[in-house]
């Protein structure tokens, strides 16, 4: 019986050659990488250097801008200081000019062929809150001294009140609006309510005198800081102007309202002291039944003002105006 030959398995040539090809490919890639590795490292280094330079440049730019802003702020502050100094100097010159004219009279301004005097000293006597029991006495005092004044009146529908409106206008004085009721809680409740009060009084005065009250004074002044605040008064003052009214405050307070009955001496000295440095004065008095000392002080005040060279004028739209706001 014949024995079958023993078969010996040999490695497949295809498997061996495939592994060798893979190894060769890997060696080639590794060799190629090793060749370009310095180039990659160079590019990375350049990128890092470029980024660093960019960041440094940006930081320097930011610092330069901050320095420029700081310098700009310093320049603005210097200009503000300079402006304040100029304003203070102008105010000092104005005060010195007022004091000089107070002592020596108006300074002539010389032109080429003539002399033009400065505006004469002017005073506006104003009386708030009437008509009252003292209104006739005030009018008589003004007539005796041949001066005119401005009366900021309130609503009075009695025969006496209506006659006082007519007499004020008839004797050449100005009549202004001080609201109909003069009740702060009512007139300053809203802008609409204030205008209603103004127009109600305007209608009454116009009916009796034929004159519309296109000037007014806010009770308490235009800077009255009530429950609605000062911004409300700013808006209200603009509305009054928009509706055709001009408003007037004052720059001399007679102080006759600081107490129910102020002394004649305090009223007189307050006016004399406050007008002493003013070329134009708007004097606040009150026309109320209790203000008999105001009437008593008027003759001395008027004579003093005349002796200081003041002329007496009445307020009207476009006239010299003192406005607190």
From TrEMBL:
Region (Disordered): 1-21
Keywords for the protein's UniProt record, in alphabetical order: Membrane, Transmembrane, Transmembrane helix
InterPro entries: Glyco_hydro/deAcase_b/a-brl, NODB_dom, Polysacc_deacetylase_ArnD
This protein's record includes keyword rRNA processing: no
Transmembrane annotation, as ranges: 36-56
Domain NodB homology: 121-313
Gene Ontology biological process terms, A to Z: carbohydrate metabolic process
Pfam families referenced in this protein's UniProt entry, alphabetically: Polysacc_deac_1 (PF01522)
A molecular function GO annotation: hydrolase activity, acting on carbon-nitrogen (but not peptide) bonds
Protein name as catalogued: Polysaccharide deacetylase family protein
Organism: Heliobacterium mobile
